[in-house]
Amino acid sequence: MPNWRDGRVVLLGDSTWCASPLSGLGTALALRGAAELAAALDAAGVLADPGRLPTALEAFEQAMRPRIASAQQLPPGRVASVAPRTALGIRVNALAMRLLRSRALRPLVRRAMAGTEHGRTPGKVTVTTAAAPAG
Ligand SMILES: Cc1cc2nc3c(=O)[nH]c(=O)nc-3n(C[C@H](O)[C@H](O)[C@H](O)COP(=O)(O)OP(=O)(O)OC[C@H]3O[C@@H](n4cnc5c(N)ncnc54)[C@H](O)[C@@H]3O)c2cc1C
């Protein structure tokens, strides 16, 4: 969606940026979005000063937009590889999946993912909660 927020309302997850189920990243993006939103609210100090909410939401959006743009790009051949149309295609697909999960190829897959937005180690997220009201 072009707009993720309106005033004090902000969306995240599939309702906002739904990547194709074939991306295999929808759950990670929803969780990452929640973490980035919490971090942005905390960093802007919204609990102490609610007027800083627009700053927090802007930071959240800037942190997520590149990841979303990247996740929404399916690599060439992705649809065909997930839904092969021939018996040979199904066999090749199953073999490729087995190879990708193999211990031998694991470092290679890890390195390939590290070059993308999705392979980056998330930053530390610290959330400060408001003190419980007395009484
Ligand atoms: C076939 C398929 C395969 C997928 N495979 C993968 C995969 O391999 N890896 C991966 O990471 N992701 C995968 N995904 C995507 C992943 O499931 C979603 O991206 C993820 O669940 C999005 O989380 P969300 O919290 O944004 O939305 P949802 O998980 O859809 O949660 C939204 C919730 O809101 C509730 N709701 C809706 N309307 C209302 C209302 N009016 N009032 C109250 N509650 C409401 C719904 O019941 C639901 O519980 C796949 C999706 C599909 C369809």
Helix content: 40-55%
What's the overall average pLDDT, rounded? Answer: 86
Bound molecules: flavin-adenine dinucleotide
Rg value:
20 Å
Number of domains: 1
The largest sheet has its strands arranged as: 1-2
Largest sheet, described in full?
Answer: 2 strands, antiparallel
Shape: elongated
Proportion of strand residues: under 5%
Query: In DSSP terms, counting alpha (H) and pi (I) runs of 4 or more, how many helices?
Result: 6
The secondary structure category is mainly alpha
Strand-and-helix sequence, N→C? EEHHHHHH
**Extended strand count:** 2
Head-to-tail CA distance between termini: 44 Å
Q: Which consecutive residue ranges, at least 5 long each, have pLDDT under 50?
A: none
Organism: Kitasatospora terrestris
Protein name: FAD-binding domain-containing protein
InterPro entries: FAD/NAD-bd_sf, FAD_aromatic-hydroxylase
